[in-house]
């Protein structure tokens, strides 16, 4: 599609491109395992795009391919209102609803349904010489990590989540100066707090502190990065943030968590397999990073983990998917709505090696090692990427791909999902 250059004043400009909702009669994949092999008439060979990014939820009932500005997106992040991605060349791409009056929202005569929302993509400009490696989104703010180990934040400054020592909103990415003496390698955002990790495995946290989510031993909020004490012998390797909690994966694959453990959504209760704790053994919150105590999460190395609003999910090194926390909407994938503080192995994924998992407010998305995409839990407003109601067991999400593909990144926030794929080819992937 054609894109035009739009001026946003002296600091910011972007090339804009619109996404149009696919026709309801358009071809869709019939098998996730086939990964998008077309069944229609033979068409001229068209090379696949460098990558595709899909969005669903928030009223989008099925995956919508977002406009890409002729670039390859390698990582995506969803916030309450933001949709962001990082390109292979190190640029930050944002997808936003078009301004009012920009068209695309009017009903045709006789139409009874509102058309699906459109999105405009733009590159964030004005950051000359900056190469972005990773992006993370909170509720109304965004954090970026550069190839030089610098963290930049922008958006809402409430709760001090930008890390600049104030509560001021900032519209352009601005360096978190308190961390300039460190080379940072990871950043993660919760609804209103941030975790960041340095090359020397030093852990920092800032933003809202309710429930002990910063891991600092208190419930205080901080508008500047604070170094987080680690238990002896533990070395952080990966950081994950939830709405009101945090988790770190350590070098040997163990997990520690802090913040709200309501419904045992962090797995902090000390439980054997299938055991239910007595009330006085239940841990409702942790003010410091604490080792997970619920089997089997405390025994097997974790490959991927994500924290939802009231539940969490983890993929073990052997490719099994476990869920824990609230099951009010079937988000644990066990086909039983009863509450259970013990971690559950997701049903219906037997024989499928899982690789990634992401949690929304009351739903879960899991990615198989072969590119399969599954979702389960609350189905309202398109959360599951299918036109159906709540699903207590995993069901496939169909992507409109005509070439075999692999999933490179997935992110859920509240009721929204962003997912990036790239075609599987014989050519080596650039580093």
From TrEMBL:
<keyword id="KW-0479">Metal-binding</keyword>
<keyword id="KW-0067">ATP-binding</keyword>
<keyword id="KW-0460">Magnesium</keyword>
<keyword id="KW-0677">Repeat</keyword>
<feature type="compositionally biased region" description="Polar residues">
    <location>
        <begin position="21"/>
        <end position="32"/>
    </location>
</feature>
<feature type="repeat" description="RCC1">
    <location>
        <begin position="149"/>
        <end position="200"/>
    </location>
</feature>
<feature type="repeat" description="RCC1">
    <location>
        <begin position="51"/>
        <end position="89"/>
    </location>
</feature>
<keyword id="KW-0723">Serine/threonine-protein kinase</keyword>
<dbReference type="InterPro" id="IPR058923">
    <property type="entry name" value="RCC1-like_dom"/>
</dbReference>
<keyword id="KW-0808">Transferase</keyword>
<dbReference type="GO" id="GO:0004674">
    <property type="term" value="F:protein serine/threonine kinase activity"/>
</dbReference>
<dbReference type="GO" id="GO:0005737">
    <property type="term" value="C:cytoplasm"/>
</dbReference>
<dbReference type="InterPro" id="IPR051997">
    <property type="entry name" value="STK_NEK"/>
</dbReference>
<dbReference type="GO" id="GO:0007368">
    <property type="term" value="P:determination of left/right symmetry"/>
</dbReference>
<dbReference type="InterPro" id="IPR000408">
    <property type="entry name" value="Reg_chr_condens"/>
</dbReference>
<keyword id="KW-0547">Nucleotide-binding</keyword>
<feature type="domain" description="RCC1-like">
    <location>
        <begin position="63"/>
        <end position="418"/>
    </location>
</feature>
<keyword id="KW-0597">Phosphoprotein</keyword>
<feature type="repeat" description="RCC1">
    <location>
        <begin position="371"/>
        <end position="423"/>
    </location>
</feature>
<feature type="repeat" description="RCC1">
    <location>
        <begin position="319"/>
        <end position="370"/>
    </location>
</feature>
<feature type="region of interest" description="Disordered">
    <location>
        <begin position="16"/>
        <end position="43"/>
    </location>
</feature>
<dbReference type="GO" id="GO:0046872">
    <property type="term" value="F:metal ion binding"/>
</dbReference>
<dbReference type="GO" id="GO:0005524">
    <property type="term" value="F:ATP binding"/>
</dbReference>
<dbReference type="GO" id="GO:0007507">
    <property type="term" value="P:heart development"/>
</dbReference>
<comment type="similarity">
    <text>Belongs to the protein kinase superfamily. NEK Ser/Thr protein kinase family. NIMA subfamily.</text>
</comment>
<dbReference type="Pfam" id="PF25390">
    <property type="entry name" value="WD40_RLD"/>
</dbReference>
<keyword id="KW-0963">Cytoplasm</keyword>
<dbReference type="GO" id="GO:0009887">
    <property type="term" value="P:animal organ morphogenesis"/>
</dbReference>
<dbReference type="InterPro" id="IPR009091">
    <property type="entry name" value="RCC1/BLIP-II"/>
</dbReference>
<dbReference type="GO" id="GO:0097543">
    <property type="term" value="C:ciliary inversin compartment"/>
</dbReference>
<dbReference type="GO" id="GO:0097546">
    <property type="term" value="C:ciliary base"/>
</dbReference>
<feature type="repeat" description="RCC1">
    <location>
        <begin position="201"/>
        <end position="252"/>
    </location>
</feature>
<keyword id="KW-0418">Kinase</keyword>
<protein>
    <recommendedName>
        <fullName>non-specific serine/threonine protein kinase</fullName>
        <ecNumber>2.7.11.1</ecNumber>
    </recommendedName>
</protein>
<dbReference type="GO" id="GO:0035330">
    <property type="term" value="P:regulation of hippo signaling"/>
</dbReference>
